[in-house]
Amino acid sequence: MSEMITLIDEEGVEHEFEVEAFLEVDDEKYAVLIPQSDEYMNEAVIMRFGLDDEGEEVLFDIESDEEWERVADAYESYAEEEGFDQ
C-alpha cells in the first residue's frame, strides 16, 4: 500500500495525498504528492521540506518557477528510471 499524507491548508481544510516520491535536488528535500481528490487526481504536487518557527519539519509550496522546473526535471528522470508514468 502507498504511503498517504494529510495536509491542512490555510482555511484548516484537510487534503489527502499519496506520496509518489521523495527527491533531493540541490541539497534540498522534496515530496512529490498525488492529490486524492477527484477534482485533482493525477496532478502531481511538488513541495519542499523545511523547518517551521518551532523547528518542526513541514512542507512548503515552491514559489520560484526555476526551482519548480529543476525539481520537475529531477522527478521526470526518477520516473523514467523507476519505469512508471507521470
Share of β-strand residues: 35-45%
**Topology order in helix (H) and strand (E) letters:** EEEEEH
> Can you count the beta strands?
5
Oligomer: single chain
The residue ranges in which pLDDT falls below 50 over 5 or more consecutive positions are none
Helix content: 10-25%
Spatial shape: globular
What is the mean pLDDT? 88
Distance separating the two termini: 18 Å
**What structural class do helix, strand and pairing data support?**
alpha+beta
Main sheet?
5 strands, antiparallel
Report Rg.
13 Å
**Total number of helices:** 1
Give the number of domains. Answer: 1
Strand order across the largest sheet: 1-2-3-4-5
Topology (elements, then pairings):
Layout: E1 4-8, E2 14-25, E3 28-35, E4 45-51, E5 57-61, H1 65-82
Antiparallel strand pairs: 1-2, 2-3, 3-4, 4-5
Question: Key terms for this structure?
Answer:
86 residues; alpha+beta; 5-stranded antiparallel β-sheet
Q: Explain this structure to me?
A:
- There is one protein chain.
- The protein has 86 residues and is of the alpha+beta class.
- It has one domain (4-82).
- It is 21% helix and 43% strand.
- It contains one helix and five strands.
- The protein has one helix at residues 65-82; strands spanning 4-8, 14-25, 28-35, 45-51, 57-61.
- It has a five-stranded antiparallel beta sheet with strand order 1-2-3-4-5.
- The chain starts with a strand and ends with a helix.
- The model has no long low-confidence stretch (mean pLDDT 88).
